[in-house]
Design brief:
The structure is a single chain. This protein is an alpha+beta fold. The chain folds into 2 domains: about 25-190, 3-Layer(aba) Sandwich (Creatine Amidinohydrolase, Chain A, domain 1); about 195-495, Creatinase/methionine aminopeptidase superfamily (Creatine Amidinohydrolase), CATH 3.90.230.10. The protein contains 16 helices and 19 strands. The chain has helices spanning about 25-35, 60-70, 95-105, 110-115, 125-135, 165-175, 185-190, 195-220, 225-240, 300-320, 330-345, 390-395, 415-420, 425-440, 470-475, 485-495, and strands spanning about 40-45, 75-80, 85-90, 120, 140-145, 180, 245, 250-255, 275-280, 280-285, 285, 290-295, 355, 365-370, 400-405, 410, 440-445, 450, 455-460. The protein has a 6-stranded mixed β-sheet, with helices on both faces. A 3-stranded antiparallel β-sheet has the order 7-10-11. The chain has a 3-stranded antiparallel β-sheet with strand order 8-9-12, with helices on one face. Helix 8 runs antiparallel to helix 9 (about 225-240) and helix 10 (about 300-320) runs antiparallel to helix 11 (about 330-345). The chain is globular. About 40% of the residues are buried. It binds glycine and manganese (II) ion (2 copies). One manganese (II) ion binds next to loops.
Length: about 500
Amino acid sequence: MRFFRAVLLTACVAPFLGAQVPQSEYQSRRAALATALPGDGVLLVLGAPEPVENYLNFWQSQNFRYLTGFLEPNAALVIVRRGGSSRAMLFVPPKDPAQEVWTGERLGVDGARAQLGLEGRDAGTLRTVLDSLLSGGGTLYAVGDFSRGGGADVPGQATPRTVHDQFLDAIKGRHRTVKVADVNELVMRLRGRKSTAELGLIRDAAAVSAAAHREAMRAIEPGMNEFEIQAIAEYTFRRNGGDGPSYGSIVGSGSNSTVLHYNRDDRFMRADEVVTMDMAAYYGGYSADITRTVPVGGTFSPAQRDIYSVVLAAQTAAERQIRPGVSSAVLNDSALAVLKTGLARLGLIEAPDATYDCGTAGRAGRCPQYRLYYMHGLGHPIGLDVHDVDAYTSGALAEGSVFTIEPGVYVRANTVDIIPNVAANAALRARIASAVQKYANIGVRIEDDYVVTASGFDRITADVPRDIDAVEREMAQPTGPAPRNAARVESYRRLKP
Ligand code: GLY
Ligand code: MN
Ligand code: MN
C-alpha cells in the first residue's frame, strides 16, 4: 500500500467552493441581533483576551467572530440601540509598531472601517466609553465567554470565573443600577440557521476533511503507529488551507477503537485490528466532523464485517428519513431499530428491546441492553463549533440544517464486567459471553455530515469511501504526498489573501 502515486488523482478531489462570508452578511447578523434584543440598551460583545502566555495559540470567541469576522485579541463590539436606530463601534488594539514586532500587524482603528465596515475605536478606551454610555442607568446586554452556574459537563460544579465574567463584574460594581443581561442565547439562535456562505464553508471543511481521510486510508498499514495517521490527516488539513483540526483527532486501533474519546493516538497497529478515525478540519472557521473505521490489514474480517454492516445499516436507515419538517427523533428511532435488531442477531444482546438490571445499592434501575455497545447520541449540528446549534436539536429539520449522523457499536473485551454481577443478570452474562469474545475490541463508528435540501439531503462527506468494498478499494490505492490541486489553492487564496 505504500507506493508513490504515479498520476495526479484530480478526479477524486471534491470541488472547493471558495466560500467566504461577505462584509454585508456580518452587518446583517449585527442588525438581526440588535433587532432581537428585548429593548433599547447597550450591547457589548467581548472578543477573546490575549492568551496569558505568548506561546499559547489565540482562538477568537466564536460569537464575537460570528458578529464581526475580526480575529485579533482584546477586541469588543458595542452596539447602542436607541429608539429604532443603532450605532455600532468596534474596539480594536491600536496600531503599535513596537508591539507588532511580537504579535504581528494589527488592523488598527482606521482599518476597522475599511476592512470591516465598522466605526473603529481604540480598545484602551472601551471602559470609559461604556462608563459614559451607562452613566444614566439602563440595560447592558452582554455576549461573551461566561462561566456557567452549574455546567452540564460537571453537574453542580460552576466553571471558573472567566476574563469576561471579571470584566462584567467590574462594570456591575461601577454601575449598580444598570441591569445586565447575558444574551449569548440570541446569538446562538441566529447561528442556528446557516447562510449560503456558511454552508459553503462547511462544505469546504468537509472536502478538506474528506481528502484527509482518503490520504489516511491509503497510508494505513500494519506496524504503523496511530500518530502517523493523525499526522497524515492533520498535514492534509493544512495542505488544503484548513485552519487545523476542529477537535482532538481520534485515531484508535484495536481496543482503543472502543474508547469513545480516545485521543492519545500513540499505539502500534496490527493487521487483524480495526482503526477508528474521527478527524476533521476547520476551514474558514467552520467545522466538519467525519469518522471512518477501517481494517488495518486492508480487508475486513468476517467479524469486523458483521459489526460494520450493522452500524452502516443504522446510519443509512437514519439518513433515509432526512427531509425538511422531520424531527431528529425520527432519525434516531430509525437508526436505533436497525442497530438493536443487528445486535440481537449477532448475539450481543438477548432481544432488541431487552433490558438488564443496572440498579445501584441505593436505587433500582433497568437499562436497555443495546446501551452496553452504543452509549452516545446519533448526531449533532455542526458549524463554527463542531457541536453547534440548529433546528436539529430542538425542532424539525429545515432546509439548510447541517448535522452529523454517527452511530457506533463498541464491543469492549470486558463488556460482561460492565453488567452488575447480580442474580437477575446471570443469564444475560452467560448468554452473551461468547459473542462478546468473538467481537471483542471491535469498535466501529461511521460519521458523515448532511445538509438538508428542499427535497431531501446532501451527504457532503460522500467523497470518503463508506461501503465495505469501497473502503477496501481505497486502502489498496497507492499512497504518497498528495498532489497540490489548483482549484484548492485558488479557493484558499481567495479566503486567506
Ligand atoms: N468528533 C466529535 C464528535 O463526533 O462529536
Ligand atoms: Mn460528531
Ligand atoms: Mn466526530
